[in-house]
Write a structure and sequence with these properties.
about 120 residues; alpha+beta; two-stranded antiparallel sheet; 2 strands; globular; T3SS_substrate_exporter; EscU/YscU/HrcU family type III secretion system export apparatus switch protein
Length: about 120
């Protein structure tokens, strides 16, 4: 049996980050879907994550989904095989934002989120 090349493990261990834009939906054959705005591996992935954290953008760790999305081109719509997972994540994030707004309104505190949440 051939041994596995250690370089393969190094490549697999590199972080992957993919940024999506959900408010700039892209027309797709199935309707409107989020589009991929950035893809990074290794240090580029770390930069994408740093920018996200610095701007209070929610981040989800999902290596399988990131691998699928990273195989696409920037500005392309999320592929159909990943759309269900992305939709679930976006739904969860919108729910979190809505909960933050509701809690802030209940306590008369201004939430630190975008005003265009409905």
């Amino acid at each position: 049996m051939a041994s596995k090349d250690p370089k393969d493990d190094m490549k697999d261990a590199r972080p992957i980050a993919v940024a999506l834009k959900a408010d700039g939906w892209s027309r797709h054959s199935t309707g409107l879907v989020p589009k991929i705005t950035a893809i990074g591996h290794g240090k580029n992935a770390e930069q994408i994550l740093s920018l996200a954290f610095a701007n209070d953008v929610k981040v989800r760790k999902d290596a399988d989904l990131a691998s699928i999305l990273a195989s696409m081109d920037i500005e392309s719509p999320v592929p159909l095989e990943a759309l269900s997972a992305v939709s679930e994540i976006l739904s969860y994030l919108y729910h979190l934002d809505r909960t933050t707004v509701d809690a802030a309104l209940a306590s008369d505190v201004s939430p630190n989120i975008s005003p265009d949440i409905s």
